[in-house]
């Protein structure tokens, strides 16, 4: 499948995130027994692993700069990221499929091109006026990827949270193809070993 992602403008190997002795506390207790020391460089594909409640989502929110560490530091370069969470909050539930796609048309593509891209992501004409709130999880994932393929500049970093949960084989195929066309930095929380292998993850960050 041809996705036509515009690529991230960052050069490969640029340091995006540096965590030094970082930890986080929601209460008086630190989340991680061992503090976190890692770097993320542009172009890497990293799987974030750990049991339920081990702090994977918390770590992502720190990497995004939404949460500050309670110990140590997390330094972030200036980069553009997209977080596709399990609720697909990238999708505006008050929009229709077509208007969601149109919102990402920052480069002013003609209507015909938007429709071509919607079709590539299996959104044929009968879907265009459908309210996003009625889409299934798999359809929302597809529309999120389609929105990114419409945007002028792909994000420097895509973060996926359990992306294959609740997706059927066809949707997993589309997700895999889209991610394999993407050249930027990828962080993915997933227990799906087959998927991680298919998208060529370079290394793992395990929380415990
Ligand atoms: N806003 C909050 N206030 C207090 N505790 C929180 C808050 N958010 C998360 N926690 C707790 O912090 C711990 C880590 O949560 P987090 O959601 O980061 O884990 P996770 O690894 O993403 O979990 P899962 O695999 O179940 O999605 C959990 O014990 C959770 O209950």
UniProtKB/TrEMBL annotation:
InterPro entries according to UniProt: AAA+_ATPase, ABC_transporter-like_ATP-bd, ABC_transporter-like_CS, ABCF, P-loop_NTPase
Record keywords, A-Z: ATP-binding, Nucleotide-binding, Repeat
Highest taxon of the lineage: Bacteria
Chain ranges of the ABC transporter domain: 17-208
Secretion signal, residue range per the UniProt entry: none
CDD domains hit by this protein: ABCF_EF-3
Protein's name in the database: ABC transporter domain-containing protein
């Amino acid at each position: 499948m041809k996705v036509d992602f515009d690529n991230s403008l960052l050069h490969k190997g640029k340091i995006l995130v540096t965590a030094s002795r970082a930890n986080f506390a929601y209460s008086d207790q630190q989340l991680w027994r061992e503090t976190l020391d890692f770097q993320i460089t542009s172009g890497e594909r990293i799987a974030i692993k750990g049991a339920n409640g081990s702090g994977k989502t918390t770590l992502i929110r720190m990497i995004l700069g939404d949460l500050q560490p309670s110990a140590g530091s997390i330094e972030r370069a200036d980069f553009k990221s997209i977080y596709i969470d399990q609720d697909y909050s990238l999708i505006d539930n008050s929009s229709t499929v077509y208007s969601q796609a149109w919102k990402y048309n920052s480069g002013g593509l003609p209507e015909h091109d938007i429709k071509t891209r919607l079709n590539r992501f299996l959104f044929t004409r009968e879907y265009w006026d459908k309210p996003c709130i009625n889409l299934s999880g798999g359809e929302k994932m597809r529309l999120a990827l389609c929105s990114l393929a419409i945007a002028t500049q792909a994000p420097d970093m895509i973060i996926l949270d359990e992306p294959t949960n609740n997706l059927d084989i066809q949707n997993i195929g589309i997700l895999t193809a889209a991610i394999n066309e993407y050249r930027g930095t990828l962080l993915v929380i997933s227990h799906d070993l087959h998927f991680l292998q298919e998208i060529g993850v370079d290394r793992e960050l395990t929380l415990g």
